[in-house]
Fold these 4 entries.
Entry 1:
Amino acid sequence: MNLHNKTLHWPGAPPITRFAPSPTGGLHLGHAFSAILSHDTARALGGRFLLRLEDIDGGRCRPEFVTGILEDLRWLGLSWDGPVLRQSERMALYRKHLDHLTDEGLLYPCFCTRKDIQEEIARSPSAPQGPDGPLYPGTCRTLTQKDRATRLATSPPHCLRLDMAKAVKRAGPLTWTCLDDDGKETDIQARPETFGDVVLARKDCPTSYHLAVTIDDASQGITLVVRGEDLREATHVHRLLQALLHLPTPSYRHHRLLVNDSGKRLAKRDRATTLASLRESGETPQGIRRRIGPPLT
Ligand code: GLU
């Protein structure tokens, strides 16, 4: 294939790629870049391009954003294969996978509030940092079985965390494949431990980003995940979950992030770069492709 004069050599069967936005706002130029790259890669290599709505956050996702996303993608000229997968309709499946991890002794309930965690971290001056900030200090991991049962008896709000040390030990050494712009594959050693005890089920819903994305990439048969550089580190956790849940491992391509005039990453709140406002101001899909420039880093 040839994207902006560069050639991507894809070694295997035609890839199955996806675009997986969260309907918590309008799509901006950065999303267009990601969707176009994923779509064009699949189309150029005779593969399939799938769409998934990552709408587990009931408080922030809105039907009008869903409508807007579908409209934006169609306007860009992108077509997807098969039905749109909606994570909000798949909670029973996520729960099943959580039960498996619980049976394996890899999850524990965490009753801490955000404030509890902040206070605990403040008390330990050398609190380890992960890619997403300070690591969870492990307060609820060390509760005795009896204390845990006593607390659960009153059904307090709690999330489920992965016992990372145990999980990493159980899975053993893991690697994932990263595809660069020339289609060169590099095997990366997975380092999920840098995230600490990640949340796999939130207090308000029986899944989390990490769990749902891993299960759904497998359900949809994705073989090449194309997404932003900001999610590169999360791949280490996804690789671990694939191993623990006996799911296949796709290849990964993490693309550069678009920035605004002051060098800051585009965000949903930047009205000026939303596709809807660009469209209203007379921009064309071809113009959007020109604006995002070469998709390759
Ligand atoms: N839902 C995520 C987002 O909108 C993307 C997840 C992914 O591509 O893995 O940022």
Entry 2:
Amino acid sequence: MEKKKVSLVIPMYYEEEVANECYERVQKILSGLEKYDYEIIFINDGSKDKTLEILENIASKDEKVKVISFSRNFGHQAAVTAGLKEVTGDAIIIIDADLQDPPELIPDMLKYWEEGNEVIYGKRKTRKGESAFKLFTAKMFYKTLNALSDVEIPKDTGDFRLVDRKVVDVVNNMPEHNKFLRGLFSWVGFKQMPYEYERQERFAGKTKYPLKKMLKLASDGIISFSTKPLKLVGALGILSIVISILILIYALISYIFKLNNLSAGWTSTIVAITFFAGVQLLSIWIMSEYIGRIYDETKRRPQYIIDKKINIKEEDKEK
Ligand code: UDP
Ligand code: MG
């Protein structure tokens, strides 16, 4: 019988300090799995340091290592999406390059996969070495996402997970371009299983997720999984009408009973104008977020551009 194959997808952005260590740790675990064949797919997400050089070097010595290199930085989600398109295995594992998600857990996850689970997603019990700010923003992110979105996205999960081939095929065939993977993997259903683990400290280097990228991820997550913000616009409209009626009543009462002798109507006019201008701008902003995404999707531009592929043969995928 042919061995089952495990595919690892590892995105890298400016990871020259961790690339070698990452390969070694992962390779050690995978080569120890006698029951399985394996492949490791590294995606160089447009790093301009030595990351690609290191990966090319590894790939020249180990043919199980495949490399995809982007023409520029397209972001973590795009990198993982590109990797998923190239996998040839039966079980696919998405893991960060910085070893925050210990590769030593892979055999255990495979055991649960053999038992019939189709998506085994890592759930962080603790997160070592991350700033209070990062922890707080991550918490807010999942809170807001779940409050607003139409699918339950498990909190404290990142992209570290083992996914069955069947589910990867489904996600690969999704028509949308900007894929918010952890949401999609939850949205598709199938047999899901949380897998609790201790998130480690980054092996070396700094986080590649500055606040700006996190905010982008958060808004992608919310907007691709929810239309509630649009409904919020409606609610704001009703609220503003109610408030304007109250202002009107107040104005009438003060006029009839001559409660004050400020130049008539000035305050209420200004209040009304500024208030409604605010409501309108806010509404337009929310709508423009959606329209922006619709525009993006209709352009049908690729989510990423591949500059180079190493050790990847098209025939492999046919099998
Ligand atoms: N990453 C990427 N492209 C980016 C940002 C990050 O491929 O634009 C990769 C990065 O190399 C790492 C993973 O995504 O393997 C997670 O990033 P990081 O560890 O910096 O995020 P954090 O763990 O701090 O949330
Ligand atoms: Mg990390």
Entry 3:
Amino acid sequence: MRTVTMEKKFIIAVDGYSSCGKSTFAKAIARELNYFYIDSGAMYRAVTLYCMRKGYIGKGFLNMNDILADIRDIHISFIYNPDILEFETYLNSENVEEEIRGIEVSAHVSRISQIEEVRAKMVELQRQIGVLKGIVMDGRDIGTVVFPDADIKIFMTASVDIRAKRRFDELRSKNIDVEFEEIQSNIIARDIADENRDISPLRRAEDAIVLDNSRMSVPEQMEWIREIIDKKRNESRT
Ligand code: DC
């Protein structure tokens, strides 16, 4: 008689500092396991873009009342693009995947992600997506707040200079004109903001495994995670 075993589908949380290569790593895991990849940072970026367009946030100002009044009108979703085999971020039905990656959104997103009501809305959406199982989600609070029971939790880190260099190369390859120093100071400022905000600050979950990828290639990181996934699979079979 033939027996069919269903492989348990995991929730994999990838948290860590900005520009650590979390999304590259999380996407590669999702591709290999045939899981969904969800970029939670994209949600905060999309809310930021909405607020920028409305003039609710800019250099030196943030209009909290307007943001809170509009919060129900901000709808974020992910739609699969079969041409690139990836989900793209939509803000009120508009594809904003490219626009949310710009330096201006990056400069304001920390302040938007500190707003309690924004976080509550994003966490709710992230948990709804989590019902799917078989997902890899990256962010700052996925293993601590969004999915404290995630099957595998990774906490990623890398040196500031290496992160700045990677982000600089990425933006330059897209012909976005930026200064290295601007990127570097943006990363330092975001680290401070992420670690020190009152609600859901960036913390390593106690049961998260640390991955410092300063000197690791993506294939090396994949080799590292394969062992962890295999071990988890064996545990879940017994
Ligand atoms: O990962 P990223 O750089 O695209 O994230 C953008 C911002 O959103 C970053 O400043 C931190 C914030 N963020 C967060 O507060 N919680 C998450 N789960 C993901 C991102």
Entry 4:
Amino acid sequence: MYAKRTHNHSLDRTIMPDHLQISAILEDATRRLATVSDSARLDAELLLARAIDMPRSYLFAHPDEALDELAAARFDAALERRLAGEPMAYITGVREFWSLELMVTPATLVPRPETELLVDLALREIPRHADSDVLDLGTGSGAIALAIAKERPLSRVTATDISAEALEVARQNARQLEIPNIEFIAGDWTQPVRERTFNVIVSNPPYVCSGDDALDALHCEPRSALTAGEDGLDAIRILARDCGALLKPGGVLLIEHGAEQRDGVAATLQEHGWSDIACHTD
Ligand code: GLN
């Protein structure tokens, strides 16, 4: 028997399986992400919004809509990275700091909200209506330096980092944010600015102890930006030794450090002749 098969157009329409619906995808991803993230639902939403190239609000307005295969594949790839412990900032490529949207890559530490306290303290030392020279040592993505430069347009901010790759990210951030009063110089701590002096020096140096268990969760970030010897104070010792010569009279040095390092940092600074040492807790 011969039967001619006629083309049935209804078969051309792809029937979306339920598991590709936005609401189901979010539920499933949230459940899985809960093992690695304390913001699992938010992470899932941000990754999904990115995979479909829509604002997050779109997800709430269209819970029953199904993803096309390409978007689903994009989402799966991002989800796998997050499940492997990669920070959201590296997956999305951006992180907000001091209301500035910064580009970040694995060449830089992900800026932390706690570090906004360092910016806040630095701004109290930098006049709004007069010029001043500010130095940020180990700038990474440029977060601290850019926030200060933005808030104090009359200041001249210099930012150093030993990593050329990190500085490239910082430079791009300055360009993107159109912040002109900032310059970047590659080099080891104060080495590239030895001939100059500053009113304010800031730094968020590496300060985690090399054997700290917390490092496991930070395995995607550059180790050199996180650890500084057994007691975590190696970088701070360098700053305490070298920054005094770079300060103008009445200048201040502001350093971020770990919660348990208060006494160690104070002792290190005293050894190098620093006075009026104060500790602020975030
Ligand atoms: N605050 C970071 C952390 O413990 C460390 C940042 C640093 O070493 N500067 O996750």
